[in-house]
Design goal:
The protein is an alpha+beta fold. The chain is 31% helix and 26% strand. It is built from 4 helices and 5 strands. The chain has helices at residues 15-21, 33-43, 77-87, 89-92, and strands spanning 4-7, 10-13, 49-54, 62-68, 97-103. A hairpin with a 2-residue loop joins strand 1 and strand 2 (10-13).
Length: 107
């Protein structure tokens, strides 16, 4: 429910209401840390470690992701992160933010 406020005779929607309802008007994300971890595990089956943490207080708006995989060998950090965002492109549409950390395991 959005609040309509009036200022100088003009009506406007409360900014807080718009932020709270999200860009799609649906509220919290429909994806959980388990959903993201599952998608990443499918993309990187040989990963030594995949960690996904909801850092938005449980509403699914922002996640922190860590992936340690030999799949990143020879790739720049930007390309490593691009692999992550490509894997999660559908889920990212419903998020406010994402922190990505990648690592190549030692030989």
């Amino acid at each position: 429910m959005k609040r309509i406020l009036a200022r100088n005779g003009q009506k406007y929607t409360s900014l807080l209401s718009r932020m709270w309802s999200g860009s799609s008007g649906q509220g919290a994300s429909k994806y959980t840390d388990k959903d993201l971890r599952r998608s990443l595990s499918e993309k990187f089956p040989a990963a030594e470690e995949i960690a996904v943490t909801d850092i938005s207080g449980g509403c699914g708006a922002m996640f922190e992701i860590f992936v340690r995989s030999k799949d990143f060998q020879g790739l720049s950090t930007v390309k490593q992160h691009r692999l992550i965002t490509e894997t999660l492109k559908e889920q990212i549409k419903d998020m406010h933010g994402l922190r990505i950390h990648t690592e190549i395991p030692p030989k």
